[in-house]
Queue: 3 jobs
Job 1
Amino acid sequence: MKHLVVFLSAGLLLAAGFSGCQTGAGTPPQAAGEGEMHTTAAPTVDLETKPASFPANEDLILLPMPRSLAFLEGPPVKADAAAPVVAVDAAAVPHAQGYLLEVGEGAAPKVTAHDAAGAFYARQTLKQLARQYPAGYLPRMRIEDWPDFPNRGVMLDVARDKVPTMDTLRMLADLFAEMKYNQIQLYTEHTFAYQGHETVWKDASPMTPEDIRAFDAYCRERFIELVPNQNSFGHMGRWLEHPEYAHLAEKPGSGDLCPVDPGSVELLRGMYAGLLPNFTSGQVNVGCDETWSLGKGRSKAAVDAQGVGPVYLSFLKEIHKIVSGHGKTMQFWGDIIMLHPELIPELPRPIIAMEWGYEADHPFADHGKKFAASGIPFYVVPGTSAWNSLLGRTDNALANLRNAAVNGLANGAIGFLTTDWGDNGHWQTLPVSLGPFAYGAAVSWCQAANLDLPLAKALDRQVFMDPAGKMGQAALDLGNAHTKTGVVIGNNTVYYALLLNALGGSPAKGPAKNLTVASAEAAQAMLRDALARVQDSAMARPDADLVKREFALNADTALLALDLGRERILAGNVSTAGLPAGVKAKLADRLRDIIARHRAVWMERNRPGGLRESAGRMESLLALLER
């Protein structure tokens, strides 16, 4: 290879039109300005439409952007991206999961990889290159690449309330593998078919042992580790609500297991005996977050004598014994132990703390330093900000992901897990999370090359497959429209306040108090503009029509929420029930249509379990409007 004409490395990408490549704090990716999840067989998109026309080097976009990319002198060459010559040589490529990709004279690209994973990631890069060039051509180039974080994952909430179909899970595994994620967790409370516990999961359309084993194998073929994730202390309400298990609760109505009841440990022992053998992963996430009733019920005497922290830690150690007996390394959510940092050194080993937080300013830096000082390995765990939002919270999500990457890397985190929760009915559709999934993949792979990634452009080229260049920015703008209302609610949006959480009283005094008629209409204008661009896109994805319908459903629901708030203000800041009958009737008609569409769209990607509960939240509002 010779005659370098453009060299793009972690310090020089900006000079060639690629944003990113900073070693410290930079500006977050811009979400203002100008798509069925794609699989490994996604169609080639010829952006210039002419078979012999090639994109300019500076127009190339990869997801993630590589650590070092050099274009070589000369025109693109005839090369088969699907048939590289591959050599595994750890001495030549010293970084785990790393690869060297060279395209020059000759019919085959050359890949030298540290290991099999590196060779696989080189193939994903070739796939994305081929997507941007006429069939059979590739640019002359040299790429050297490896990840910042050895563990880069996505956690999907399959407990509240969506359990994806196997087709959806396989499609997501393909997408995540191309983004170079190497871990998936399926957050579970009651949606695994535990033998002998049918009462808990019989209406949930759960993942079966056969499902898990099949998906585990599918993931392994794509260098993805499927890590079991079963909450084991808090968030056990789906078990404890049944008479057969209620006696194990900390107190009546609590979702926390009682840590001083031996039956709690025995329940978990049986659960893990049924769950863990289905996974080949050497890890398990046992949850144990948000145990808010601890010490307020049957463990009060123990907490009074020992303290909340020691009682929590004692139960954590019991769980550790169980999973260690299965040969698994335990992951656990770090929020409760962080309230008692003096106990961090007493955590059982081996163990991995999962430092989670979902707002832009979460203290990843401070908390990471505490785990690092104790010698406890930890992941940083940001999120998509899609839950409780309908359309996402774009600016918050990108800042949260960036914060986690920067401070996780600075403090030696061994992993980065992008979470996608489903609180309060999981009303958001899957495409809402695609932008944050993509940015999380990018900054966890190579922070220096991706902090300032042109995300909308990357989404158009590599996710939405939209040669019109409209979908990426439209999706990001839909996620920012709520900010036009002036209502900022942590872990939530104004839409959920108006549709679910603040139906009574005056809107001028509740969480939506900053909403005005003018600000509601400004948000609606932004929603309509972005939705029009979604409909005008030219996605080449097999599920393009579904993606459009999913965004339309969530946008129409948000528009309804804003109309509901606007009408309450115009009627004199009344409660939802206090609206004039004619207004309620019109809103009810729109809501009936939305509920019907919600049910239909749900079944396109998910199993039926959970749909009744999810739609039921909307139906409660409908009943109020029908009175």
Job 2
Amino acid sequence: MALKVAIVGRPNVGKSTLFNRLVGKRLALVDDRPGVTRDRRYADGAIGDLDLTLIDTAGYEDVTDESLEARMREQTEAAIEDADLILFMMDAREGVTSLDRIFADRLRKQHKPVVILANKSESRESGGGVGEAHALGFGEPVAISAEHGEGMADLYQAIVAASADIFVEEVDEPDKPIRIAIIGRPNAGKSTLVNRLIGEDRLLVGPEAGITRDSISVDWTYEGQNIRLVDTAGMRRKARVQEKLEKLSVADTLRAITFAEVVVLVMDKDNAFDVQDLQLADLVEREGRALVYVASKWDLEEEPQSRLAELKRLADDKLPQLKGSEFVALSAHSGRGVERLMPAVLKAHATWSVKVKTKDLNDWLAMATQRHPPPAVDGKRIKTKYMAQTKARPPTFVLFASRGGALPDHYIRYLTNSLRESFDLPGVPLRLTIKGNSANPYAEGGAKSGPERYKGDAKTAPRKVRKKEEEESRLPGKALEQKKTRVAKPRVIGAVKASASKKAGSSVAVQKGARGGARQVSRSGRIRTGQKQGPRK
């Protein structure tokens, strides 16, 4: 088990910045304004070779009334009680204030080792504040800069020296917990529900809307099963989110949904399934997480039976892709119906993790296609081949079919709904992928056509052609180029009539004589005057 270290101090001294530095992630929200952190947050971190369990706390306020600041002070005091070592942080630029002295008096009564940290010591103006920290009575202050990472070596030495007498018990690594994110609109009762489940005031609650800003994870055990509950900030419609801090809270909530396994959507019974609730449920389905609906403040409902039936009908009508999801009506304030939530969550998680045998899938596919055959596209009917499950969480299936890309969307929805009903997968997002090739794989250029072969000149070419190619191959480059660019002269063929030469299309040199007759030209260019003929009879 790691050493538990609580980081405490007055508001806006850099506690969350140091928390993120030691954890190695930007878990806590950080802003220039004071009072950003409200709940205490636990996370595993390290400095050097020391493993730490860090606790980020809200800024200490000296109030004891029923205000929000007084409830934040109670959370800080609970963190001090739970910690083994306390890191008391002050601002070196501003020096020691009256609130620092009041908080120092409070820490002296705890009888726990305290290390005083002078943060924001990277500038020259902070030298006086570091000197003033000696007056608080916690020994030599450690000058650090949480933003820039300065002074971490000195902090390591101080923690090692302060924790020398602290015994850390070795505990076996627990099993991997089921991660459950609780989301909803502001003031829906999410933090109250988490406190009711774990049986203690772990999270800050109140009548004000938007108290929770960070996504706070709480480890819990339910009937021997490790559970990690993640309370998130309320999400309003995107058009209403304007402030930077609220945008950071929404981003933190979206990250919690991404890393969750089961998501509990908490809705007010009077405004359940409005536009924002539907968008959140659709986001959960697109992320592939199991979903459980919760209607809160149910102790104020006058007609619970009829209202519950109406809400279930609304859920199936408005979100058909999550048809059959678990629905729980409860009151976190009074505890009515809370005992039905965790069985519904575990059932949804088991359905989300289901694996179906390939044989059962193909038997179902044969019956489904026999009951409703695939439609014919472009005059050709699509044939389904086989089906298999590639992974769970969420259940993902692959269907192989001829011309699978042409399968209509309505038939894919038919297969998905039939798959959900046949294998009892209610309320779980299913992924069905269709694969198939319409082209012949053995055709030229196909997947199985093989490498293209070189088709050279045929061996049955005439001897003259082959001899000519051999001669050209032996010519030097310049001679071969001149031969290719040489223009062939027309051949002169004797004893051929003009009409015959025109019909044959051959190049025969023919000239006209004085009487209109054709006169032949010899190869030397002389005109033949006549031929040796015998005397006429």
Job 3
Amino acid sequence: MAYQVNKFNGVLQTTVADGTIDSSTDLRFVGKNYAGYGEVQNENFLHLMENFSNTTPPPKAVNGQIWYDSGNKRLKFYDKDLSKWKLAGGAEVSVSQPSGLQTGEFWWDSAAKQLYAWSGTQYVLVGPSASPELGSSAISSDTIKDTKTPVADSHAILKVIAGGEVVAIFNALEDFVPASSTGLQANFPIIHRGLTLINTPSSGETTSEYRFWGTASNADQLGGYDVDQFVRVGVENPFTSAIKFTDAGFYVGDDADLRVWVENGQDVVIENKVNTNITLRISNGAVKKDVAIVTPTAIIPGSDLIYNLGSSSSLWATIYAGTLVSNINAADATTAYDGTTKIFTGAFKGNVTATDATVLVNATTKVIGAAGIEHQGNFIGAFQGDLNGTASNAQTLLDYAPSITVTSGTTEVPLRNTDGYIYANRFVGPSTKSMTLKIDDAATDATWNGSDETTWYRSARTTKTAYTIAARDAAADLWANIFHGTATAARYADLAEKYLPDAEYEVGTVVVIGGEKEITASNWGQRAIGAISSSPAFMMNKDLEGGVYVALKGRVPVKVSGSVKKGDRLIAGNNGTATAAVPHANDVFAIALESSDDTGVKLIEAVIL
């Protein structure tokens, strides 16, 4: 009769036929009358005693079966619902979160070296609070000293530590500089009242990538500038000084309708970007008046026959126009030209047109008059074109008397004297030859315009002023920003270039690449690039702000320590000096041009290689 093997809960596990062995589990079940059952039973007992000890789990496990993991030396049991082996005690060990833990069971994160407990819904960190691999992280209190002398003050602070590094400090009292003994001075050159981030100098602008992230309700500065330096929308901005824009200018309007900018470095442009009108408007209290309107084709008045161009006391010097359609009044308000009656007097330049478009004076054909017009009175003034008739004599020309001398404060017509000379304080116009040229540093020239010949005549000056003729000063020196051409000689000896130093150095100081900026004083064993020059013959990179000239080639005084002989090869020494090189030395940068037995530091003439 076959054996029925039931589990502890009464559920049938398997049926074993007579005379057979059942191997459906990790224990073998013996059937009735099976010969040699003793070995099988003994092995079953042994497997139970050792809890199936092996480096791999039993392959036919049943729910609740015990297995000793000999590889990891851990006792485990089989959870059939999860189809996995679970620890009988201790914590699960893995680099990722395990599944199937019961409330209160532990998981050891072997990567971060942290212990977690399963709450039933999530893993809760037991400790440590931060992974040891990432360094310690905490907020800790400390009391440190400042740099005051003779007695330093103590300051209570809170240090914010992340990953083993102090990244911020809270300070309740006044600003102070931490003592070097605190170990904070390198990253915290000053600790401000409040919260100070790492790498924040006294200016308050953090130099590293550390930042406050989030929204601040207020701030004293923005980008290092006080808030009253910014233009605010919708409020009056009472600036106490002029606002400066670059030559690119600024735009006005939702569609950038108007642009104000500087062209060619000096020409101010007010440009309408949308090809519509520009209105010049004035306000007199609540009354607004349009004085003039600039259209794409004309400049027109805001209202007809309301506004004047100039006044009886403020006159325009000259008005140029291709065509003038209007009455013309003299300075005493008399009508010099009446566009309706076509009667005119006075001086004109350009076409003069009647209100019916009749051309009375044609500047192109040089014809004065037209059919149906009348000339009344004498012609007084200047004529351009042909004048039919002959004048036998004239006492004045353009109302000016002739003269062979220069009379101060008087306008005259210059005449040649008996020697054939004409005298004047200034001639305006082209000259093919001149024996001398007057130098006047205070002269006022017209604004240069390459297409306007009237602006081509310039004064001579001893100053370096644009668009003027260069003249030697009292020392016979000639000044200009840049000379273009070839120089055959130079007053000084060396070729130098500007570099940014990390301190102020004397002439002759030997420098190397390094320090907080670009160059610093040399020390023994370094490769020198040259020495500080006082009067270089050729100056490169001259506009570098804050830079000093370093002689790279040529003859220059060099600070030398120790005795030296003419012809000695020089290498970098300590404290910004040079020293004589031993035979076969590398990094030779100069050769001494004179000898000295002085063992101290002195200036020696040398040639930079």
